[in-house]
Batch of 2 targets.
Target 1
Amino acid sequence: DQQVKQNSPSLSVQEGRISILNCDYTNSMFDYFLWYKKYPAEGPTFLISISSIKDKNEDGRFTVFLNKSAKHLSLHIVPSQPGDSAVYFCAAKGESGTASKLTFGTGTRLQVTL
Amino acid sequence: DGGITQSPKYLFRKEGQNVTLSCEQNLNHDAMYWYRQDPGQGLRLIYYSQIVNDFQKGDIAEGYSVSREKKESFPLTVTSAQKNPTAFYLCASGGFLGNTEAFFGQGTRLTVV
């Protein structure tokens, strides 16, 4: 049962515009959410995170929004740049009794076009 | 330099052989993880360890084994019982507490022929 879902396998955005990547989760125990960026044949790199006590966290061009009632989070990238082209994974932590367990979604491939 | 190191980057093995993938970190992290990525797929959790001498099965632990004898090391053995071992394997480490991120190694691509 997929507890963290990224329903859009791919997204294409023009350079300079906003990229919005979405993520849904089913486990209400999750209390910390993270976004990672991944290039082929490399390990994911951490981008930004958000605690469940917040609804927004911003870091430069990256902003993560959390809607707990809808069990939904999104990553906004503004402005999008060609170097942002990669696969983006959302992840969640906080299942009961397993504070460290980190569960990932299936990823969204972002392509930023010129 | 602090970081997490996986070795080797590429590994070839014959079907039926066990193989051990190395993962070492010098970040003083309590938690360590092993994930598997298949082409076009997400990251699926194989095993994770929250502290030394303790580890928990993830979502796809069958055919794999781990040990956590030292804080710095979390080797993964892919046994002959794993039906489809060819994949990209990723190790990560992070803090024990919930509100901390995990950092990944560069991965090991295992090909079983």
Target 2
Amino acid sequence: EVQLVESGGGLVQPGASLKLSCVASGFTFSDYWMSWVRQTPGKTMEWIGDIKYDGSYTNYAPSLKNRFTISRDNAKSTLYLQMSNVRSEDTATYYCTRGDYGYNYFDYWGQGVMVTVSS
Amino acid sequence: QITLTQQAESLWVSPGEKVSITCRASQSLLYTDGKHYLSWYQQRPGQTTKALIYHASIRTDGVPTRFIGSGSGTEFTLSIEDVQPEDIALYYCLQTLKKPWTFGGGTKLELK
């Protein structure tokens, strides 16, 4: 059974940094593109970016690429999202998603982890 | 970037009825391989987000046949025939033709 379990969220002050993790199981992690997606309290969904199966290539939403970094450790089947200089508008639930084998869509999602940016 | 518009923020439906959720793209989602890179997702409280449809009309494994994806070019529809109580959820469309991938604003299906 495919499982994606995010962790690392919580309350963080504006300007701080935070690193989210997503542990994958039930499939060969190193075979798949992975993405981070976030959902605001108003339910707007936003794709943050993705990383190639071997970690050699990343893409980001233009508005986030200067502050967010996606990485992965295939030996640990873990995806990461490093968030820096966070702002109140980064308050959201963050989801880890898997691209299907042809990367046509997101075939699995994690349950999400909440990040609240507030002083 | 490609904008996806789901006109209806909410739709009200009674069990057994048919409902259609539309998603309009700012440009064609048809790729040179003849496929449309548009997918649909269901988000129910307390459950992980579920992929329903990809390539505009292909149901993912295990999705009931009452979920029907249709459309082409820039106009797409997710229809749910014979709505069941468990279909009450948030529905999103997503384009994966051109990065940044983008979502529609979501449509909340509610019971009358």
